[in-house]
Write a structure and sequence with these properties.
Blueprint lengths: L8 E8 L5 H11 L17 H6 L6 E8 L5 E8 L7 H9 L3 E7 L6 H12 L3 E7 L8 H11 L8 E2 L8 H11 L12 E10 L3 E10 L2 E2 L3 E4 L5 E3 L2 E5 L3 E4 L1 E2 L4 E5 L13 E4 L18 E7 L5 H14 L4 E7 L3 E8 L2 H14 L4 E3 L6 E5 L4 E4 L11 E16 L3 H10 L3 E8 L2 E9 H5 L2 H8 L5 E12 L1 E8 L2 E2 L5 E4 H18 L7 E7 L2 E8 L15 H21 L6 H8 L4
Parallel strand pairs: 1-3, 1-4, 4-5, 5-6
Antiparallel strand pairs: 2-3, 7-8, 7-16, 8-15, 9-14, 10-11, 10-16, 12-13, 12-15, 17-19, 17-20, 18-19, 21-22, 21-23, 23-25, 23-26, 24-25, 27-28, 27-29, 27-30, 30-31
Helix pairs in contact: 1-6, 12-14
């Protein structure tokens, strides 16, 4: 197979805010270039996970190779990467952008620029991309292309005089997008005769082929039978198959410079394939690695425990398999007195956590309990040592702590002016610091600094409810700052329940403690003795609820007769309850754990 000339290749990604039509545009491009027959075509072709199709979101960036005969008479190879739009999957976006030279910026012509539009376009500019603005949904009655073009120029600073106006749903002007890709995006660079170097963009596990690696070849070739070396791990493998996504796996003889495709080499574990690594020829290796991507840093941690303790090994295997397909997911073993053996897992955000949980229950049929999500704190001790705290249950004794630092984020919120008041109140209630407030037409753009701990629980849901769903939210990490933080322990019948302990700011500790005590009071079944539920900071109780005892009528058998007999029976019952309370352990049902940990604290 002869190499495709570099000037006939275009590598591009589609970036946009959630629901602005990335995956639908990808469908139309696949359809217009005839990559799939009408029978094979379905909506959101590239969203192949059941959970992606159900929620209507993209989670994994997907690649497809299209062949397009342009108006200039030449046939071009277009490598398209469809990227996620949600803030939790920004890591997937950064990897996709590193493999491409240009981007299509899709903006909804009725909604305009949103927070995630900004975040993704700045990432693309940082990656040195040429950007083509595309206005989607211009067939909607509410579409205002002129206003949105002006907004793109004002907010992002891109020239929109030749923006492509389309409707991805109806297929209107898809030809215009294809021509813009060919004429306005730059071709890749590379040298076919140089030493082989290829960027490892993604890897996932396939039950039949082993690990499949998505690569972007920079220089040289990748061929079947070639021995390759991973530069960071030093592992050596023999290529069994190379090919392209069209969009099905289609084997080819080789992959040349500028091309994007896949390879398999009977690799059994994805641990050998670090995302961002450089693949080179084993006999004639490259001297320098390609610039990879920043490693992903989990910002939210929570414990995952199997409801049935016998499922622990199955959970370990399942997490290992998910880790194969998701480089940004981390886990390590941990034990809990209340929940037994499980894993402490790190995620890029709450949606990421939710998706992983849902995939574990669907794909691996696991019944799980997740502990309350927590962020990573930096604990500085009085002896000068410091360490990162992932789990509130590991909080050291207060006397050895000098100070605690918590992570802060810089949040960008875009919303209609009508909802500004409630959103400002929400941000201030969450200890936020306003950085700036600017206007683009009737839309306000708020920039706030917020502690991540305050955002993790229910900030996004609250933001959506106070703005009637119109606010869009994006954030980036903004360092650590010292905070007045405490660990709140929950005690049931004077026994601490480590799985329910959490960190909070001292000013909000009492409210949060009272909330969880009230919730547990309704969730834990009554016993034959009183059960106190307490929230405590160190040795000081800050909130308490009591579950009253079930009362058995021990005097039911006494018809009339002397009152002292009844009294004797009641005294005996009282003594028995006292002894029971002394020795009785309260079993907290799994359902109570799950409901308490779901609380909107």
């Amino acid at each position: 197979m002869t190499d495709t000339p570099l000037d006939r290749i275009r590598n591009f990604s589609i970036i946009a805010h959630i629901d602005h039509g990335k995956s639908t545009l990808a469908d139309r491009l696949i359809q217009a270039t005839g990559a799939l027959t009408a029978r094979e075509m379905k909506e959101q072709v590239l969203d192949n996970m059941e959970i992606e199709r159900e929620r209507g979101i993209t989670i994994k960036a997907q690649t497809v190779r299209l062949t397009y005969p342009a108006k200039d008479g030449k046939t071009y190879i277009l490598n398209l990467m469809d990227t996620p739009g949600h803030v939790d999957f920004a890591y997937e976006v950064s990897r996709s952008l590193a493999a491409c030279e240009g981007s299509l910026l899709v903006v909804d012509a009725s909604q305009g620029v949103e927070a995630q539009t900004l975040a993704n376009v700045y990432q693309a500019i940082d990656a040195g991309h040429e950007i083509v603005p595309v206005l989607n949904k211009i067939d909607l009655p509410a579409a205002e292309p002129a206003r949105v073009k002006q907004q793109i120029e004002d907010v992002i600073g891109l020239d929109t005089s030749d923006a492509v106006e389309i409707s991805a749903k109806t297929g209107l002007n898809i030809e215009g997008v294809l021509e813009a890709i060919v004429t306005r995006l730059p071709p890749p660079t590379g040298d076919a005769n140089a030493t082989t170097t290829a960027l490892l963009v993604d890897s996932w596990y396939d039950a039949y082929l082993g690990v499949i690696i998505l690569v972007r070849v920079k220089d040289g070739h990748l061929r079947k039978g070639q021995r390759i070396r991973m530069m960071s791990s030093g592992s050596v493998h023999t290529i069994e198959q190379v090919g392209v996504f069209a969009p099905k796996l289609t084997p080819t003889d080789s992959l040349g410079p500028g091309e994007m495709g896949y390879l398999t080499a009977a690799i059994k574990t994805v641990a050998d394939t670090n995302v961002g690594d450089t693949i080179t020829d084993d006999r004639n290796p490259a001297t320098e690695a390609l610039p990879g991507f920043k490693p992903s840093i989990p910002v939210v941690w929570c414990g995952l425990f199997p409801v049935d303790a016998d499922d622990f090994e199955k959970l370990r295997e399942s997490l290992g398999k998910l880790r194969l397909n998701d480089a940004s997911f981390h886990f390590e073993t941990e034990t809990s007195a209340a929940l037994g053996f499980g894993f402490r897992c790190g995620f890029l955000g709450l949606l990421h956590l939710e998706i992983i949980q849902e995939r574990l229950s669907r794909e691996f049929d696991l019944d799980l309990i997740a502990t309350a999500p927590s962020v990573v704190y930096k604990i500085h001790k009085t002896n000068g040592e410091s360490f990162e705290l992932h789990n509130p249950a590991d909080f050291p004794d207060g006397s050895v702590i000098d100070h605690i630092e918590e992570p802060w984020i810089k949040a960008t919120i875009m919303l209609p002016d009508d909802y500004l008041g409630p959103v400002l109140t929400l941000c201030n209630d969450r200890r936020g610091q306003q950085v700036e407030l600017t206007y683009v037409g009737s839309r306000a753009m708020l920039v706030y600094r917020l502690p991540l701990n305050e955002v993790v629980f229910d900030f996004y849901d609250r933001l959506k409810s106070v703005s009637r769903g119109y606010a869009s939210f994006d954030y980036q990490m903004d360092g650590y700052e010292e905070g007045d933080l405490v660990r709140i322990s929950i005690l049931v019948n004077a026994e601490p329940v480590d799985a329910l302990s959490f960190m909070a700011h001292r000013g909000q500790a009492e409210r949060r403690g009272r909330q969880i005590c009230e919730k547990l009071k309704d969730l834990i079944p009554r016993q034959l003795f009183k059960i106190p539920i307490q929230a405590a900071i160190g040795g000081r109780v800050i909130a308490r609820e009591t579950i009253s005892a079930l009362s058995k009528d021990v005097t039911a058998k006494c018809y009339g007769g002397d009152i002292s007999r009844k009294r004797k029976l009641l005294e005996k019952q009282k003594e028995g309850k006292k002894r029971m309370r002394q020795f009785g352990k309260v079993e907290i049902p799994q359902s109570a754990f799950i409901a308490a940990l779901k609380m909107d604290a």
